[in-house]
Model the fold of this input.
Amino acid sequence: MIDKRVGSLAAAVEGVEDGATVLVGGFGAAGVPVELVHALLEQGAKDLTIVTNNAGSGETDVAALIRERRVRKIICSYPRSAGSIWFEEFYRAGDIELELVPQGTLSERMRAAGAGLGGFFTPAGADSLLARGKEVRVIGGRRHVFEEPLRGDVALVQALRADRWGNLVYNKAARNFGPTMATAAELTVVQVRAFVELGELDPEAVVTPGIFVDRVVEVAA
Amino acid sequence: MTATPLSHTGMAARVAQDIPDGSYVNLGIGMPTLVGNVVSAGKEIVFHSENGILGMGPAPAAGEEDWELINAGKAPVTLVPGGSYFHHTDSFMMMRGGHIDVTVLGAFQVSAQGDLANWATDDAHLPPAVGGAMDLAVGAKRVLVLMMHTTPDGRPKLLPECTYPLTAAQVVDRIYTELAVIDVTPAGFLVREMVEGLTREELERRTAAPLAYADEVTVLAPPVR
Done:
């Protein structure tokens, strides 16, 4: 019998090791698996590489991980947003490493990892500073830069509902990076607002098939 | 200068006039978002948001915000009938893959070759941030820039070469400022429209790159909707 449901947030993040690369879903505040990130903070893993679109804001989620000195490096497209005070403070002090990636490249690098591909050439950023040190090739008359796959040890994702097989549906624009990140990590952990019975999700509307999911935990809205 | 520059809304309305009915459009953060408010009622334009929305509608009424339905600037929006949600990789596939007909972007600088600088200045105090700017600039079929003609302290933003880091090279098709509508051509900038009362000398003083002029330069005025 397959049952990916776990009974607590602590069980959901059990085993995340120091030095892990952790993919964290969300765009701005929409879709951020806040409770899972807080459980990771509680769990204590440190020296983390965090892959996420923004660098957190205020005192919650990724910002809290940075504040508590758990993050060695952040890979993201837009770390500078309203309230990203902890990232900015650590960045200025040289206490955190930043790898800046164009947003579509960030997503596609994780897709490549999830799809078992060795990377891809993209025109995005090929004429920019972000292509420095990378292979550039002219394809179809246009410059493209080679980007490598980006794999996580762990993915933390927020979805709306899951069944015990880990099939997922999301809510509106909170979907964002979730479906791609779920495919790109050794261990994919998902927080949902509600569990549903197997068979209850419309198979035509399942967004992430359970094959990509390892653990699901229910977090009351 | 005796000319009256266009207002921000007037500039946005002028851009909207150039967006054909049925277009899929992505609006950049800042002034370009104004374009969404001034599209004429007779046109069906589908707005794309990088975070996974096609058919993005206007801001919701106060009290009806859904924080899981936001735009690229993280402000709450709505979905129009026929709209859809999708994940980030698909969203950027639409952008890079040439499926977006038009994007309207802000810019720090544009060069006479159509190079775009809109993601970083030379301010080393700020951590760098790029978001979706590079994907959009290389991917949209038509790249329109909506910006003020000069910086707030009067320095030209239309240059022979960008001095700020490039977002993408040779991508800009047309520039709309409060003073003029200017095309980027293989030969450089070509002025198509100018506001009433503006002389060529005055426009050239505010522009660091050479300007050529269309055979018939027309008056830039906010369109009547």
Remarks:
- The mean pLDDT of chain B is 95.
